[in-house]
């Protein structure tokens, strides 16, 4: 067994039954660590993924050092977590970073040469990371894991977007773009995820006291401007109904495609804007046309790339 992670012996499968199991990325600190503890208190086993090892040793956890921007590392993470408990019920795609470029203020005034290629790590971590995680989670959640105690295949996914995924954020435009993208992603995935018994939603924290903020920022605010971690846990719970995980209809009855903002002690549910009435290209009949063409085309992507010499 790799020394990259530790096993908690008493949770190892002895009778073939395992506790409900979660993979949380960005679990070594802040919101991910709080969610890990919240689930542990409810009897879950948690696979903690992060670039950094957690400072505390927690029972019933498995730490897997992971860079979420790497497909290979996330694939290895999910495989190890599934091997650990034989089931996957919940995934929080939570790891995130802030901007790594200054789009308008790092231009050269003296050269006709183009500026240096910008650092796009924020997109790789905040957007590619959750996309990889959702794809992997759907795969492992839908494996037949009833022998491990799971009532039926399927599961729930929550991605951590941000208030900057709903409102503009000129001081962190890369971050805002990735977090807006996550809202669009869960809204677009929800209807097709239902077919494989997966629910996918987004939480949008306001300002929470964590390690994310650059030095000096948090000191600018007073305590009453911070959203407590308990509000974040209420957001996760409202989307994932953790206490009902053993029920047959746990997944079917859950919410999907939702975006909930947590600010102070308020939960605000955000809906997509309505379309103009005259947008007939996307009425019910139109939607069938989009679905018919795109679902067939997307299915064939791997084959098409191969034909076009792109693989
Ligand atoms: N704190 C806030 O005010 C706030 C507001 C809105 C959204 N969020 C979001 O909440 C999520 C959690 O952040 P947090 O506030 O708890 O901050 P945090 O910095 O305390 O925790 C983020 C964790 O992600 C890990 N991480 C960073 N890059 C990674 C990578 N490539 N692969 C794996 N792990 C990586 C870090 O090591 C850290 O442990 C982030 O997605 C963040 O954007 C936070």
UniProtKB/TrEMBL annotation:
Keyword Oxidoreductase assigned: yes
InterPro entries: NAD(P)-bd_dom_sf (IPR036291), Sc_DH/Rdtase_CS (IPR020904), SDR_fam (IPR002347)
Keyword Cytoplasm in annotation: no
Keywords for the protein's UniProt record, in alphabetical order: NADP, Oxidoreductase
GO molecular function, one term: oxidoreductase activity, acting on the CH-OH group of donors, NAD or NADP as acceptor
One Gene Ontology term, aspect cellular component: cytoplasm
Membrane spanning residue stretches: none
PANTHER family to which the protein is assigned, alphabetical: 15-HYDROXYPROSTAGLANDIN DEHYDROGENASE [NAD(+)]
Family: Belongs to the short-chain dehydrogenases/reductases (SDR) family.
Descriptive protein name: Uncharacterized protein
Organism, scientific name: Friedmanniomyces simplex
